[in-house]
What we know:
Blueprint: E1 2-11, E2 14-24, E3 29-33, H1 40-47, E4 55-60, E5 63-64, E6 73-76, H2 88-98, H3 103-116, H4 132-144, E7 150-154, H5 162-177, E8 181-186, H6 189-195, E9 198-203, E10 206-211, H7 213-217, E11 224-230, H8 233-242, E12 246-250, E13 253-258, H9 264-270, E14 276-282, H10 286-295
Parallel strand pairs: 3-8, 3-9, 6-7, 7-8
Antiparallel strand pairs: 1-2, 1-4, 4-5, 9-10, 11-13, 11-14, 12-13
Helix pairs in contact: 2-3, 3-4, 4-5
This protein binds adenosine-5'-triphosphate.
Adenosine-5'-triphosphate binds next to helix 1.
Amino acid sequence: MLLIEKINKSYGKRQVLQNLNLQINFGEIYGLLGPNGAGKTTTINIICNLLKADSGTIQINNQPVSEKSKAIIGVAPQENLLYQGLSCKENLNFFAQIYGLGGKLRQLQVEKCLADVNLSDRANSPVETLSGGMKRRLNIAVALVHQPKLLILDEPTTGLDIEARYHIWELIHNLKNQGITILLTTHLLDEAERLCQKIGILKNGRILAEGTLSELQNLIPAKEIVTIETEEEEKAIARATELGFTHRRYGNKLAFWLPKTLELKEIIATFDNISLASISRQPITLEHIYLEVTKHSNHKLLRI
Ligand SMILES: Nc1ncnc2c1ncn2[C@@H]1O[C@H](COP(=O)(O)OP(=O)(O)OP(=O)(O)O)[C@@H](O)[C@H]1O
């Protein structure tokens, strides 16, 4: 569906995308993660033909990106693009007109998109009277009004409460089930874990790791992660190192990668004669992988 090969982009002397490769298959949800300034918005702008790459190729549905490809892409930007004084229906009608939809088709599409985002009962409400979550959903409806094949969602749930997030996550699932291919950027790792079939981690304009969640989990050679609280951290690290356990700090928490699954009593025995205030076990999550890839430079590049 989308194939990006060796894209480079500089702003003046600052190179913000470096040999970027990215492939999204038809019907999948791809999560593009990365710290602030990694190059996510620049990548989106290039896909949408709003910016030109300095070199490299980009194809959508086997066609090079051009003005024509705008018809098959829908974008919901980070900041809602809505007219506050107009109703939901008027906003959708306006954007549908811009995309050249007329007559019955426009009316049908406006109604379908309102239904898709669960706002049919607010069709005539001015945008300024909607909640934050409803505005985000309407922003997505605007991106869908011309029936795009590729939907780009730039941080779709940033700033929303958990219930509003659930609504958006359900909406994204439903859109995938309708056969729409989705590229989403997010800073919320649990959001990517929940929604995305494939995840790419971008830093300094390069994809450092890419794959399914289980493929990415191979970047951390551990069965599980154990976090401990102790006054004797140095002693605990020395003991774990002797046993071949890698240690990490997640925030201010000291953690160890366990290369094999151990019984709790075996874990406690590992730290024999070290006073432990607490001990907790966790599976490897995207958060651990993300920190590993973005903070430690000697990671392996993983691709499918
Ligand atoms: N028009 C511009 N001129 C100069 N530098 C720019 C321009 N747009 C972006 N940059 C720089 O390019 C880099 C990548 O920016 P970009 O907005 O693509 O990152 P991002 O991953 O989307 O970040 P965020 O998560 O904060 O939105 C940043 O260092 C940014 O300062």
